[in-house]
Amino acid sequence: MNILSLIFTSGVLLLLAYRFYGRFLAKKLGISNLNTTPAHTQRDDVDYVPSKTPVVLGHHFASIAGAGPIVGPIIAIAFGWIPALLWVLLGGIFFGAVHDLTSLVASLRHKGKSIGEVIQTYIGVSGKKLFLVFSFATLLLVIAVFMDIVAKTFVKVPSAATASVGFMLVAVLFGWILRRFEFPFWLSSGMGVLVMYSFIYVGEVFPISLSYTGWIAVLLVYIYLAAVTPVWLLLQPRDYLNSFLLYGMMILGLIGVIFTNPEIKMDTQVSFSVENLGYLFPVLFVTIACGALSGFHSLVASGTTSKQIDKEENALTVGYGGMLIESFLAVLSISAVIVMSRETYISQITTIGPVTLFSQGLGGFIAHLGIPMSISVSFVALTVSAFALTSLDTCTRLARFALQEYGEGESHFVWTSIHKNRHLATFLTVVISAVLLMSGEFAVLWPIFGSANQLLGALALLAVSVWLYKTGVNPLFTLIPMFFMFAVTLSSLAIFTWNNYQSGNLALMIISTLLFILAVVLLGLAKKSLRKVVGSV
User: What are the boundaries of each domain within the chain?
Assistant: First the structure.
């Protein structure tokens, strides 16, 4: 099989899944435009804003994608490219897209609130509190890590910093024009994308150079502003326009593959155990999160995205379709690497890293279109770094939501203030993230993120399964992924706990143990809740 056949077959499978399984899910969930969305019922023009489907899809896709569907699959190829590809396709269709769509619809039916609200309604207040604390802590970790990545990227590649600043300015102007004037949407979009792409050249001519500390200070101010300003002014148009960077990268890479039709050089060997990674189960399913199933997606779907859906039927395109686009990106990531031998892959994955490996692989496809190799590779690398920035400010807004929802119903004046004041909630989020970053603890905690992220996915599936059951819908399509992800997560946490115990890393051992206990407690609360309905489970 050659690369073109692999990509074409994968694309057809994903399209068929959207056409048939997606519509099956929409029918099971009772998705209908007769249901008024929270963007209308809760409209405040800050967080709740009804928006056009392409804009919401662009925001959602830009927020969930980041570097995840690139880094995870490329690392997991160490187990073999065939199991990695199968998990991306089967996981994306039957697990990840189901997880994203059901999380989005559940939020739409609960005033655009997070999965925590669903847990409170159907499992209990204690479950909601646990989930929100866990979500907030996970988001703080992501914010700290992505600030570090973006700041280091801007120091190393000043042209990317200029381009990114330019993207922000274009996004604000684009959002303001859409809001104030009646220009045709296609014309505004075309002009916005054209100007945005022009900043790639501007970045090469006028690079902005600051120190690491200087960029951290700029990013802290930026994420605060991005989290409190109306979504239509910055977050939404920025993500929408940025999504065209990723679309462009994918389309150019695909055209390059069509012109060159490269062969697969990597062997089909499957390794059930890989040194420094572990066993295929559960590590493969934790390593490939974005592209197959990622718990972070439930926070985006039930956080920012659900507050922007104009009509409920749009949820299928945004929730299920958005995940399948990400799965296709993961297929491209795998394709960009398997054009080399296993020996070359092993030697380069540890020296230049997965992002550079992907940039060189996909950049090589694009270069066959007559674009210089250096420019092709730089374009791919810039696209990846741009999406790390989109994930950064989305996470800040999501952490603010989690903090405000936690304070809902609390009588203490501090929590009441946090719940009602988005500026205070955002300020606390930014300060805690900055402390975590400056302390360096984020680097110590990051190895556990994979397991924590998949635990989020399992818990989201648990919440929607209980919601569906209690509303008279057979939740088999969420229960199967839920049980599988709990098996993956609990196995991973158990192994992680034991390995850190043996290595003497008590901090990570304690944290992984607490996460294991959290999962078991929430499972127990869900079982207790269901007993009230059916008598026994």
Answer: 3-40+49-441
